[in-house]
Amino acid sequence: NRKAKVKRKAKRVSDDDDEEEEEEDEKPSKRRGQRRRTKPQDSDEDDEGDKKSVASKASKVSGKKGAKTSRKEESEEEDEEDERVSKKKRGKAASKKEKEEQNNDKKGKASGKDGDNKDKKKKKNANSSSSSSENDDDDEDSLSEGEIAALMEQVEEKKKLISTIRSKPWRMKKRLLVLKEAQQFVEKFEGALGKGKGRRLYAFKVMMTKKLIKFNRDFENFKTACIPWERKIKEVESHFGSSVASYFLFLRWMYGLNLILFGFMFGLVVLPEVLMGLPYGSIPRKTVPRDEQDTAMDYSVLSDFGGYCKYSVLFYGFYNSDRTIGVLKFRLPLSYLLTSVGIFGYSLLVVIRTMARNANEGGDGGDEGEFNFSWKMFTSWDYLIGNPETADNKYASITTSFKESIVDEQENQKDENIHLRRFLRISANVLILCCLGGSGYLIYFVVKRSQDFAKMDPKKLTWLQNNEVEFVMSLLGLVCPPLFETIAELEDYHPRIALKWQLGRIFALFLGNLYTFLFALFDEVTAKLETEKSIKNATEWALSEYYANYTSFYNTTDVPPPNVNPADVIRGPCWESAVGREFVKLIVSDVQVTYLTILIGDFARAVIVRFLNYCWCWDLEAGFPSYGEFDISGNVLGLIFNQGMIWMGAFYAPGLVGMNVLRLLSSMYYQCWAVMACNVPHERVFKASRSNNFYMGLLLLILFLSMLPVVYSMMTLSPSFDCGPFSGQEKMYDVVIETIDQDLPAFMGTIFSYASNPGLIMPAILLMMLAIYYLNTVSKGYQQANTDLKKKMQLVSMSSILLLSFF
C-alpha cells in the first residue's frame, strides 16, 4: 500500500508540472516547442522505465526476505522516489529556462532560414549531450546501497546454482535452460555493481577471474589429453573390463620407466662416447677384424648382431678405457659403472613408490561396501556425456561392471565338495611341477649343445642350430602358459584367484628358464675367460720379444709401438659383448614370436571364424575354434620378464634400453588393435584388483633377481683385457677406488674405507631390519583399528535403524 501511495504522489506531481508548462508557453510556439520537447521527454521516459525495472528487480529480491527487511526497503524506496521527484523538478526548471531563452532568441533575431537551421542543429546537439550526461548521472545514482546488495546477493545465488546444477534432480532440458538463464543474468549484472572507475575495475576483475578459470580448465584438459593412450585404454576397459585394461595400464607405466632409463644410458654413456671418443677404425676394439670384413654387411650376419653391429655403440666392447675423454675430460668408465648401478637404484625407488601409492588406494579385492548393485544402478551414468561414441563406451563399461559384480556374488554363494576339490588341486600342482622341471632341463641341454656348436665352423651350421636357444625359450614361453591354464581348470578357483595362481606359475616357469640360461651362459663365460688369459699371455710375450729384438738390433731404448693395422690385431673373445649379444637376440626373438602369435593365433583365427561361419558344418563362433580371449597372465608375465632381461642386459649392451622403448611403443598400438579387432571378452568377466600391487610385487622380485648376475660380474669376474671401459682393471669396481684415491681429498677416502667396513655394514643392516619390523607392526595395528572402527559404525547405523523402527 505504501508503494502504491508513493507512485500516485509521483504521478500527481508530474501532471501538475505538465499543466503549468502548457499555460506558460505561448500559442504560436506550441508546435515548435512540442517538436523540440519530444526527445528529452522520451529520454526521461526511458530513464523512468529503467528505474522502474531496477526497482522491480530489487523488490522481487527483497520480497523473499522477512517482514523487518521489507519495512526498511519500503522506507528506502520512499526516500529514493522523493529524490527522483526533486531531480525531475530541477530538470524541468532547467528546460523551462532553455525554452524562454529560445523564444527570446527567435524574437530578437533577424537572420534567415539558414541561420535558423544551424541554430537548430546546435541546440539539438546540446540537448542530446545534456540528456546523455543526465542519463549517465542518473544511471550512476539510480542504484542505492540496498539495491546493490540485493543484486549482489542474487548474483551470488545464480553463481551457486551454476556450480551445483549437476546435483539437481531435474531433466537435462530443464538443466540446460536454467543454466543458460543463470549465466546470462550473471554476465549482465556482475559488472554493474560498481560506480564510475570502480565499475571498470570490478568488470576487469570479473573478466580476469573468468579467463583464469577458463585457462585452468583448458590446462587440465590439456594435461589429460597429454596422457599417452588414455582414450585407447578407456575404450578397451569399456568392452573387456578392468582386468584387461590393467595390462595396458601396466604397459604404459613400463614404457614411461624405460623412457627415463634410456635417457640416463643415452645421455651419460652413449652420447659422450659418440661425441668425444675415438672414431671407428682408430683402435682394434672399434674395428671389424680382417677375416670378418667380407661378411660384415651380410643380412644373415647382421640379423645375428655380428659384423658391424658387434663393433658398434650397441655393445659393451666398443667403449674406450681411457680414464678421461674429450675436451671436457669426461670420465667415461666411472660414468658407465655408476649409470649401470643407478638404473637399478632408480627402478627400485620407482617400483617401491608405486607400490606404496597403490596400497593407499585400496587393498587387493577388499571390502567393496554394501548395496553394490544399487550404487551401480543409480549412480553409474554420467549425464554430461555429449559424444555418442563416449556414450556407447560408458554403456559397455556399466554392463561389464555388472557382469563382474554378478560373478563375484556367485562365487561368494557357491557350495562345493571340499575333499574332491583338494584332490584335484593337488593333482594340478603335481602336473605343473613336472612341466616346470622338464622345461628347465630342456633349456640347460640346449645351451650346452649351443656351446658345442660354437666350437664348430659357423658356415657349416644351419639357422636352427645358430638360434636354437632363443627358439626353444620362446617356444616354451608360448606353449606352457596355455597348458597351465588348461590344468588350472581342475582347481575351479575364483577368476581373480585363478589369475594370481596362473601368474605365479608362469613366473616360476620364466624364472627357472632364465636362471637356467644364465647358469649355462656363465659356464661359457668361464671358458672364454680362460681363452682370454692365454691370448693375453701370448700377446704380452710377443710384445716383450718385439721390444727386446728392436733394442738389441738398433741399440736404443726408445722403442716405437709396433705398426700394426687395427684390423689385424689379435684380440680376445670379449665375453661381455658375447653376453650382451645373447640378451639382444633373446629380446628380438621374443618380440618376433609374440607378434607372430598375435597375427596367426588371433587375427587369422578371427578371420576364419568370421567368414567361414556361414558355410561350415557347425557354429564356429559358439564352438571350436571360436574367437580368442586376451591372455592376461601370459602377456603380463612376458612383459615382466622382458623387463628383467633389459635390466640384466643393459650393462652388457647399452643400446638394449633403446630397443626396448621401441618394442613397448609398437606393442601398445599392435596389441590394442588386436584386442579390439580379434578378441572377445572373457566368459567369466571379473574385476581387477583395486591396486596393481600384485604386478608390482612380481616386478620387484624380478628386479632383485636380475640385479644379482650384474653385481656378480662387477665384483667377481675379471673384465676383458682388450675391450670395454674397464679393460686393464683387475675388477670392474676398481674404477671407483681409483677415482676416490686420485680425485677426492684424503679424508674422503678414509670415510669410504670406514663405511665399507663389514663391522659397520652388519649393524646397519640389522637396524634396518628392526625398523622394518617395527613399522610393519604399527601398520598392522592401524589396520586393526580401522577394522574395529568400521564395525562400530555399522553397529551404530543398525541401532539407529532399530530406534527409528520403534518410533
From TrEMBL:
UniProt biased composition (Basic and acidic residues): 95-119
Biased composition (Acidic residues): 15-26, 134-143
TMC domain segment(s): 574-689
A GO molecular-function annotation: mechanosensitive monoatomic ion channel activity
Disordered as annotated region, ranges: 1-143
Gene Ontology CC terms, in alphabetical order: plasma membrane
Keywords associated with the record: Membrane, Transmembrane, Transmembrane helix
Membrane topology: Multi-pass membrane protein
Bias-annotated ranges (Basic residues): 1-11, 29-38
Family classification: Belongs to the TMC family.
Main location per the UniProt record: membrane
Subcellular localization: Membrane
Organism of provenance: Kryptolebias marmoratus (Mangrove killifish)
Lineage: Eukaryota, Metazoa, Chordata, Craniata, Vertebrata
Annotated protein name in UniProt: Transmembrane channel-like protein
Any one GO BP annotation for this protein: detection of mechanical stimulus involved in sensory perception of sound
InterPro entries linked to this entry: TMC, TMC_dom
Transmembrane regions: 253-271, 334-352, 423-447, 502-522, 645-665, 694-712, 751-775
